[in-house]
Each structure stands twice: as C-alpha cells, then as structure tokens.
Amino acid sequence: GTTIQVVLHARDLGSHLNTGSIMVSPTLTNRFKDATLIVNRTARTRFCHDIKCHIIRAKGIQKAVYGADTSPVNLQTMQTMRISIANAIAPTSRIRSVDLTFSATAKGKDMDPNVVIITNRVTTMRRMLVKHPEAKSMVEDNWKCYNELGHLGTLYAPVDLIEKAPNMMEQSRH
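and the corresponding structure tokens:
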C-alpha cells in the first residue's frame, strides 16, 4: 500500500498549527524577520521621531505579531526586532537598556512587540471567557499546570497577567 504522510506542523489561516510535541512557527519567524527589515528601512528615513514611531507601530509591529496570539514566538528573532526598534527610535549605545528605551522614548501605544503580544493574548483570552464561560475551569486548569511547571511570567505563559484577567473581566461587566 499507500503510506500516510504525518504532518507535525503546517501553516493554517495565517498562523501556524502544531500537532507534535515540539512547538515551531516558521510562519511567525518569517513575519518577524520581514518586519525587522521594515523597521530598519524606517530608521534610515528622515522622518521625525513621532512619524517613525507611527510607521513602526502601524506597519512593522502589526506585521510581526499577526498570528502570535496562537503561535510560539522565536525569542531570538523577537529580540532582534526589539533592538532594531530601539535603534530606530532612540540614539544607539553599547550600554543601552532596550526596555528602558521603550519606556522613555515611546509615545502613545507600546513599541515593544513583547508587550503587544502579551496584551493581545490576554485580550483574546478575556474575549473567549466572555463568549464561553464554560471554558473558565479549563483555563484555570491550564494556569495550575503552568504554575506547577514553573513557567511564571514567561512569554509562553504570562500567568501573572492572565490570572488578573477574570477579575478585570468581572469588573468590566459592572
């Protein structure tokens, strides 16, 4: 006979679907690389700081984080993009803190793709809990699992932020 091909990961609706135990997302990684090129091109323009920030937010960050709600992020690629954004919006230095650069120079919404991804994931989870309250016990079980495995505060399990989401959801209803 005929052999059946086993697919461990595939692109699906603009994101990436994993069926195996290893979480990969080449689709998202390529998006981050393309977005980093956009940020680097924007950095070389003569636009003022505010316009550069606007272009990076509207074009670069949005391109990079599309699909990051459901796919694992390559941390090295994200860090490369974070450094490119910091170079575009602030003077460069060998002893500069990228986190401090984002805090001090970003005007308006956050310029850090890490923060944007976490915010999007929490927002998505809150929407899911409002639409499907029966899923609350499943979400709580997942939190306990991540806590037991020690993934607190990581990009893959921002539990300290997510744990506040049901309370924030309850407060927003009243």
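(Above: one complete record from the training split.) Residues 118 and 155 are 7 Å apart (CA to CA).
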